[in-house]
Amino acid sequence: MSFSAPGSPPPPQPYPQPVPAPGRIPPQDPYPGPYPGGPFPAALPAPQGVLRSPKGLATALTWLLGAAAAVHLFSAGAGAYEQSWLQGFAGDTHFDDLELGLSPVLTILAGVLQLLTVLPTVVVFIIWFHRVRSNGGIFRPDAFTLGRGWAIGAWFVPGANLFLPYRIARQTWRASTQRGPDGSDRTAPAALLTSWWVVWVLAAIVGRVFSRIYMAADTVDELLAAGLLGIAADLGTTIAGVLAVLFVRRLTAMQDTMAAQGPYAPV
User: Fold this and answer.
1) C-alpha–C-alpha distance, residues 16 and 172, integer Å
2) Domain count, the chain
3) Which of 17, 134, 167, 211 is the one with CA 20 to 30 A from 153?
4) Helix axes 220-261, 191-216, angle to 10 degrees
């Protein structure tokens, strides 16, 4: 099965049957449904729904994530410059008494660039995430514990957005993994997915702490302490952006293979 163009989807075709492993004879079960204790699952049902290719969204997302990562790297550089600039003032100097220089300009520029890149990146990422979740529900409906609407809603639930999107991504990853040629269940290594999520969550938490401390800072010493957290958050977000690009491209490729070859890997 291949991805179809929106507007003229072909009728879903049944998945091909699993290929028995050499030297093994699948049990003969006269009844429908899984064979108790047998090595082969029952034939998978015909997919219900229309697959939509995530490749175009993945391409756009790759560029947006790359741009966002570059902006956060620039922001980390601006933060490092601010650290060196603040060293020229006494530690108890009040924020309002600092002389204007290049550092504030770089900080403001970094903030503006982040606003210009983060919003479109978030929008396209959520659209792509919903697309691959929807495809995963067609590939393997039993792999999910939440409806596909949660692929959007999970990002906006305070607290739950630290783990629900990861659960959905993990289930989508499993649903997009082909079974073995003999029908056996396989699990693709998800280290890339987990690494991206852990780094992103840690960077987001550090970024929030930085914002609160920076907004409340009055003296140079307080600004220096907050600035270190800001640099750490920007560097972490840059790394998370690179990992996100790899994750997006990998999951998109897995779904492309699944759509083209069916749920069973070739021998």
Assistant:
1) 21
2) 1
3) 211
4) 150
